Each structure stands twice: as C-alpha cells, then as structure tokens.
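ok so I'm stuck.
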Amino acid sequence: MVRGKTQLKLIENESYRQVTFSKRRNGLLKKAFELSVLCDAEVALIIFSTTGKLHEFSSSSINKTVERYQRKVKDLALSTKGIQENTQNLKECDINTTMKLEQLELYKRKLLGDELDRCGIEELQKIENQLEYSLSKIRARKNQLLLEQIEKLKKQEWCLLEKNRRLREQVHALTNTCGIEQQDIEVLAQSELNEEVETELFIGRPEKRMNCEQK
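replied:
not stuck anymore, here's the structure
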C-alpha cells in the first residue's frame, strides 16, 4: 500500500496532534543525537510543547551552546553593521568622486574657453592666471628642449671638426710618405685646370686635311 504525502497543516484533532508530536519529537531527538555522533558536531535542541513542557538535547552543555550561539549572533551583527557602514562609505566616496569629476570636466571646458557666460570677474581672473602659469611652464619646457638641441648640434659640429682634422693629418702623412709636398700637389692640380686644349676647325675632305698637316 502506497503511503500518501502528509499535508503540512495544523492537526485539528488534539489527540492526533499529541500523538504526532510525541513521535516526531522522539525522531527529531534521535536525529540530533546521530548528527552529533557521526559528524562530531555541537548540537543543542530545545522543544516546548503546546502545554509549555520543555524537551531538550545537547551534545555537551546546552548552556554553553546557547552562550556560544549568542556570541556568534553578536559577532555576525557587528560584522553586518561594519559591512553596511563600509558600503555606505563606499557610496559616499563614489558620489564625491563623481562630483569631483564633473567639476574637473567643467573647469577643463572653461580653460578651453567654453561655458564662460556664468563666470564672474574673479573666476575669470583665476582662469587667466592659470593659463598664464601654464603658458610659462610650456615656454620653459620649450626653451629647455631648444637648448638641448643646440647642445646636441654643437657636439655634432665638434665631432665633424675633429674628423676633418684627422683626415687632414692622414693626407699630410700620406704625402710625406710618397715624397710629394702638399704645395706640389696643389700646383699640379692648378696646372691641370689651367692647361689649354688646342682645337682646330677644318672644312673639306679628309685627304686634303692630311696634306695640309704634312705641309
């Protein structure tokens, strides 16, 4: 025979209710005992009947278990309170950060020359002073970069001059080794440039030209 599912509602019949209470109470106490033995758990069970009679079970001492429970509940309450306070602080910080970002964005637009209609003379003067200060820093940085570039170019110039000096020394040493003076090289080069090339224009047949040359 299939046992039907018991409907969870108050048993109207007082006798049946008392019998059910006794059976399920004993079963509940048995399960609490088994749980404490099998799992080495600290178990405390308190039951009051409808008549006010106390039924209890404890794996150690019910008073110690209740005190431990109260301490744990207190710690949990404090922890929950701390979490709520931290959450509230985080929300306030988030709101403050959002407001600061909005103010910075507005100030940035004002520095760019936008939304100046609502600004008074004092605020405009502050913005002007800030722009002048920023401009002075930009110019100082620009001058620093220019000086660094000039110094770099001077170093490159010195390197080129030093390289040119070494090349001149090598040429001078080479001319001395070959027995040729630098002045002679310059004279020869100048004479080659000044040497005239004779040209002659002749109109006629080739054989007449040859005859003319033989004469």
